[in-house]
Amino acid sequence: MKHLNDLLLLGDPRLYEVCEPVRKEELPLVKEWVADLHNVMEEIRAKYNFGRAIAAPQLGIMKRVIYMNIDKPVVFINPVFENLSEEMFELWDDCMSFPNLLVKVKRHKSLTINYLNEHWQEQSWYIEDALSELLQHEYDHLNGILCTMRAIDDKSFQWRA
């Protein structure tokens, strides 16, 4: 079982790598990865009081998996975005890999996420606002992009109060 000290922190070169798709024969491993993601997210919540989702590469699992747990757990395997809105909005983004830093970014207001669930069934979900922002952040992790790289300008950084 992975723990908080297994979380990759800002500067770890693995955070900048593009993840590989999950292959169907790896599906039995996904349950173990999700258990690790869940455990670390719970530890982040307890320590820092935030955390709605986490991407597999944040634990050094270089696969295209996102785990979200707001009111119930959702597993996104090999997600792909479609229909990204032209309308954007600005927000202060946070990240478990640098929990005390906030970064002002622009995100799409809405999008459709297509993915496989933990049973390898195709799913499609139209999301907007906070969920759209959240999943864009996690999706970026799968592509080796951190919100620090999406900062609006060089003044778009602040410490969490």
Query: How many whole angstroms does the radius of gyration measure?
Result: 15 Å
Number of helices: 2
CATH 2nd-level architecture: Alpha-Beta Complex
Major beta sheet summary: 5 strands, antiparallel
CATH superfamily: Peptide deformylase
CATH class: Alpha Beta
Helical amount: 10-25%
Average pLDDT over all residues: 97
Q: Beta-strand percentage?
A: 25-35%
Number of β-strand runs = 8
Terminal CA distance reads 31 Å
Strand order of the largest sheet: 1-2-3-6-7
Uncertain runs with pLDDT below 50, 5 residues or more?
A: none
CATH topology (fold) name = Peptide Deformylase
What is the helix/strand order?
Answer: HEEEEEEEHE
Q: Briefly note the structural class of the backbone.
A: alpha+beta
Summarize the structure in words.
The chain has helices spanning 27-48, 129-142; strands spanning 53-55, 65-69, 73-82, 88-94, 101-108, 110-116, 122-128, 157-159. By secondary structure, it is of the alpha+beta class. The chain has a single domain (4-159), classed as Peptide Deformylase. The strands form two sheets. It has a five-stranded antiparallel β-sheet with strand order 1-2-3-6-7. The longest helix has 22 residues, at 27-48. The mean pLDDT is 97.
